[in-house]
Design a protein that fits this description.
This is alcohol dehydrogenase (NADP(+)). It catalyses: a primary alcohol + NADP(+) = an aldehyde + NADPH + H(+). Its cofactor is Zn(2+). One of its GO terms (molecular function) is zinc ion binding. There is one protein chain. By secondary structure, the protein is an alpha/beta fold. It folds into two domains: 212 residues, Quinone Oxidoreductase, Chain A, domain 1, CATH 3.90.180.10; 134 residues, NAD(P)-binding Rossmann-like Domain (Rossmann fold). Strands 3, 4, 5, 10, 11, 18 and 19 form a seven-stranded mixed sheet that branches. The relative contact order is 0.16. Bound molecules: NADPH dihydro-nicotinamide-adenine-dinucleotide phosphate. The site of NADPH dihydro-nicotinamide-adenine-dinucleotide phosphate has 33 residues, from α1, α4 and α5.
Length: 359
């Protein structure tokens, strides 16, 4: 097989023009004995792509090739790889491409919290080489972060699950969302729509909080049992006070985010896990916590085992993303980033037609 030494991708080169990309050629990290090279065929566009390229969290390491909801085909396998992948096999990659796999955290299957973890893009490996994402022809990844995709799941349907899906699946299972539990989900975007579907599939009673009523019908179709429009129902936090065991917040902004109100909706020692990562801090009054002993925290992606479990559950229950597909080129990526920023997506953009844009 003719094998590329460099890969091609669409890069943001200036944060001031964050929704414009240009095609670049880049050199991936040196091929390691446990690395897998993947020819990409689809990639979801995550809210994190927008935070990253706009420099909302920190100044990006430009040029940045974004994308961390990747589906593709294995084209090369390192000599020491042990996960039984085959050339030609369909696989996925999420928002993490490396961790040390040796520290106490990694050995406890908490590799997404390894102090040395490497994000799929806009990050660097310990040897200084740069990580490049999925708006690209190929990606090179350590096998631990490469996941076989069950045959019944369509590539474009499953791509967004590799980040958005696992990010909500992990805190749901780690906090026992299931039969008899009342689970709140805040914000119906890419993450939020999976959170509704997975909470329901796990057997919980689902309460969805959205700012307006515009997504009500969709939330109910996704499986939500209750719908609360927080900007339209002024008494929501009183009506739902002390009702929920767990809340997973998928909101990407802290603007008008009534954290005190959401915490009030928790039962004693209930937990609010914010997987959403707003660019500005939350404000909360300490007195809120004392009233019900509520707890506030976060969660980062999910372990390899959780990813495999999630994909199995999705295959068994027919769970798939609601997505709009756009061609992976300058126009398609610009539209996806712009509309994602404007909250004009139901509920994920997936970049497709890779074979037309890359040699
Ligand atoms: P989307 O843009 O698809 O969705 C964001 C949703 O947030 C909106 O649809 C909206 O829902 C809700 N929202 C926006 N502003 C507010 C507000 N002020 N108060 C309450 N809700 C609000 O983004 P994603 O789903 O892709 O990502 C969501 C967040 O999760 C991002 O910050 C992203 O960076 C983060 N993330 C975190 C990960 C992790 O490991 N923890 C991994 C991946 C992403 P509605 O219209 O229903 O109100």
């Amino acid at each position: 097989m003719v094998y590329p030494q460099t890969f091609e991708g669409y890069a943001v080169t200036d944060s001031a023009t964050w929704n414009k990309v240009e095609k670049i050629e880049f050199t991936p990290k040196a091929f390691g004995p446990k690395d897998i090279d993947i020819k990409i065929s689809a990639c979801g566009v995550c809210g994190s792509d927008v935070h990253n390229v706009r420099g909302g969290w920190h100044k990006p390491h430009l040029p940045v090739v974004p994308g961390h909801e990747i589906i593709g085909t294995v084209v090369r396998i390192g000599d020491d790889a042990t996960t039984n992948l085959k050339v030609g096999q369909r696989v996925g990659v999420g928002a993490q491409v490396w961790s040390c796999l040796k520290c106490e955290t990694c050995l406890e299957e908490n590799e997404t919290y390894c102090p040395d973890w490497v994000d799929t893009y806009n990050d660097f490996y310990p040897d200084g080489s740069k990580a490049w994402g999925g708006y690209a022809s190929h990606i090179r990844v350590h096998e631990h972060f490469v996941f076989p995709i069950p045959d019944v799941l369509d590539s474009n349907d499953v791509a967004p699950m590799l980040c958005a899906g696992i990010t909500v699946y992990s805190p749901l299972v780690r906090n026992n969302a299931g039969p008899g539990k009342k689970v709140g989900i805040i914000g119906i975007g890419g993450l939020g729509h999976f959170a509704i579907m997975f909470a329901k599939a796990l057997g919980a009673e689902v309460f969805t909080f959205s700012r307006t009523n515009s997504k009500k019908e969709d939330a109910l179709k996704l499986g939500s049992d209750h719908y609360i429009a927080t900007y339209e129902d002024k008494d929501w936090s009183t009506k739902y006070a002390r009702k929920l065991d767990l809340i997973v917040s998928c909101g990407n902004s802290s603007k008008n985010f009534d954290l005190d109100g959401y915490l009030k909706c928790l039962r004693v020692h209930g937990k609010l896990v914010s997987v959403g990562l707003p660019e500005e801090p939350f404000t909360v009054s300490p007195g809120t916590f004392i009233k019900n002993g509520s707890l506030l925290g976060s969660s980062h992606l999910g372990s390899r085992q959780e990813m495999l479990d999630m994909l199995k559950l999705a295959a068994e229950k027919g769970i798939k993303s609601w997505h709009e597909d756009l061609k992976v080129d300058e126009e398609g990526i610009s539209e996806a980033l712009t509309r994602c920023y404007e909250n004009d997506v139901r509920y994920r953009f997936v970049l497709t037609d890779y074979e037309k844009s890359f040699k």
